[in-house]
Amino acid sequence: MTVVSELWAGVVPLLPVAVIVVLTLLLAWLGGLLAGRLMRPSTPQMAGAARRLTMAVVGLIGGTLALQALGVSPDVLLLVIALLGVTALVALRDPLGNYGAKYFSDIYTPFKVGDTIEVQGFSGKVIEINPMTTVLLSDKEQLVSVPNASMIRDVVVNTSPQAWKEVTIPVSISGNLDLPVFESELLKSLSKLRMRLDVRFPPVLTTKARTPQSTDLTLTLMLRRPEDRDAITAEANKRLTEVLERVRGSRRSGPTTGNSR
Amino acid sequence: MPPLSICINTQTPLVQFLRPPVGDRGEGRGREPVDLAQLTEGVDYRVSPGGVTRMVYPLVRRLLKERVLDRAHWVALNPHGPATVRLGELTLHNVSIDSERMAGYGMVKEAIWGRIHELDRAEEHDELFWSEAFSEYAYYNRITAELIQRLDTEFDFDAFYVHDFQQLAVGHMLGTLKPKIFRWHIPFDATSIPEKWRALLSTYLNSYDVLVMSARRYATSLKAFRPTGRILKLYPYVDPDDYSIPTADLVAETARRLGLAPTDEVALVVARMDPIKGQDLAIEALGMLAEKYPALKLVLVGNGSFSGSAAGLGLSKSAVWRSHLEEIVKARGLEAKVLFTGHLGQADLDALYERCSFTLLPSVQEGFGLVTVESWLHGKPAIITERAGIAELVRNGSNGLLFDPADPKSLVRAMRLLLDSRAGRLRSRLARNGRITARKCSLDAAEEGESKMLAEVTEA
Question: Do A200 and B135 touch (CB under 8 A)?
């Protein structure tokens, strides 16, 4: 009896912590879901980022409250987190800058592998975009490595013919989605945008990589007018999502990741 | 070079099933591979006549025998076949799509075919690639690519060999860095391709490492598209061993059965029933010559293609064309001079080649024209349309007689040259030189060219 009482006495102070942890997990999941839904009209990447950020913020608040419930001063905790954060930022400033730039250049920079660009006085064909740098092959067959941060900070000129026309949207689908049906339905849906697209270039879905779990594709559209770029990108993303959800109706599939360049 | 493992893709299957194989009845697409050796040709199945399969199969057989290949898989569209068929070291895989999608696919492929053959200049097809039907063409190509991809995961092929425009998108859809070869079997004239088709065709063509064309002029014209892959000219081919010289008795028996008299002069056309094959030109030419040469008879061998047959895709246009031809025959009063034999087996065909005086290839457009090679192998003079790929191997008056299908009188003139009572020496010369030219389109020549190409592309 005494042992049970002692155990119970030890567990009771932890109950509020457990409740906080459970609530935090629940709220983080709900908040992430809500943020993802709210951001869905923009791009799948932005929606994913909003979901992850919301979950991180809720998690941080919940973690702080849980530690406070255990008797740890929140001021000390926040100070330690802040110091660690600043140290990490200072130490990893350049790589983080490049990584972040890669993330944003995926969304906003109008070039892709295969295009010819000019940046910081260098010119060449883009042969690789990795998390840190964009690698160009110059006319003299030299490899030029440009930090991704430059792609955000500096002026980048895409000199590829008809580069302004091209909108490429990465699409990742799970391995159990019926790809032939998805492609067929997507082409049907996109043919409705024909008046806004260059009729010499029908939409093309290109296979980039595949594993048993997923297939990475890119959808390429060619604009008729440059000013339609944002509108067409948003509309194509919307149609892509609609088709995916329709095809998922018969089979389950993983999330799409898509955006445009 | 160690033996290779390749995956071949054609639209037409090597084998068409006349009824569901044993163990597969009712469903038609059982899981267990069907062993063709256990079935009976003519009862359970038939080998697809003519076209791509007739050419590809002997080569695959030879390359397996010579150990250039150690195994081969062949993916084709075959809605009435079992999923998998074993044929020695060759495995056939059949793709099936439902009738609704088949209609869309059929419409697109006919439109492409018509435009490439310059039969159809309708502007409505300029935006073919935006049509709903095109999504079904993409569906067929994607479902084929998915099957090939699955097979590659299992068998780890060294290369992929895709045949003809019906599957052009497959190379683009295969997410692989392995070598991909595409053989274009129909004519190719870059100037006849609509502006609005060019970008997508280029995208698809650029997915291949080697583009094989059937004639020099097609290869030259393809350069206008500036494909990233290598362009190669390799003539189509037949296996001379598949052609036998029938006995005189068999020839006489076949002729009698078909209603040919011993004194008849026989002009032979071997082609499927299709407007592009120009049987109407041959009938018109016969009409112009019938009075002067009363013994002249025209024999038209062939019926529908795989696309047009009941065992195939059911996209029949051959029946309509045959009715049209019969109307022309009737209108010209040539009923007693024109024979429609339909499809003939190889033995009957060999007998007819032996019996005929000469052969005609009257096509309005023709990717190559292997029937002319068959004619040469049988030692028969051939009259050949200038619009056939094989025309570039013909020296007019030496190994064949050429005519312009846009000028029917030029066909009449060529036929008259061979019907003339003093034509004996000309016939002999054309037959003798034709037989020599046929070597360029033999399986031996193909084995050499294709083996070299496969070696280069897989070792590059």
Answer: no
- Asked if A199 lies within 8 A of B172 by C-beta distance, the reply is no
The angle at the Cα of A175, spanning B10 to A239, to the nearest 5 degrees, equals 90
Class of the CATH-defined domain B240-441: alpha beta
Number of independent structural domains in chain A: 3
A251 touches chain B (CB under 8 A): no
| Three-state secondary-structure class, residue A211 | coil
Identify whether A96 is part of a domain: no
Considering only CB atoms, A184 lies closest to which of B129, B138, B146, namely: B138
State whether A51 and A65 are in the same domain: yes
Parent domain of A73: 2-91
Which candidate, A222, A218, A215, places its Cα nearest to that of A194?
A222
B187: Cα separation from own chain's centroid: 12
* Residue A110 Cα to chain centre, angstroms: 16
Beta strands B358-361 and B265-270: pairing type?
parallel
At the second CATH level, the architecture of B4-238+443-459 is 3-Layer(aba) Sandwich (3.40)
Task: Kindly indicate the confidence band of residue A72, based on its pLDDT and cuts at 50, 70 and 90.
Answer: confident
CA distance A168 to chain B (A): 15
Looking only at the bridges linking them, the beta strands covering B382-385 and B358-361 are parallel
Establish whether this prediction's ipTM goes over 0.90: no
Regions of chain B short of the pLDDT cut 50: 25-28
Among B100, B128, B129, pick the best mutation site for testing chain A contact (most A Cβ within 10 A): B129
How far, in Å, are A230, A233, A258, B128, B293 from residue A236 at the CA level?
Answer: 10, 5, 10, 21, 68
A213 near B CB under 8 A: no
Token pair for B195 = 């502006």
Q: Do B139 and A188 touch (CB under 8 A)?
A: no
Residue range B291-308, pLDDT digits in tens: 999 999 999 999 866 555
Amino acid identity of residue A112, one-letter, is: K
- Could you give the CA distance from residue A191 to residue B49 in angstroms, rounded to a whole number? 38
- What is the tens place of the pLDDT at every residue in B66-114? 999 999 999 999 988 899 999 999 999 999 999 999 999 999 999 999 8
Q: Where are the domains of chain B?
A: 4-238+443-459, 240-441
CB atoms within 10 A of CB B36: 20
B184 vs B140: CA distance, rounded Å: 18
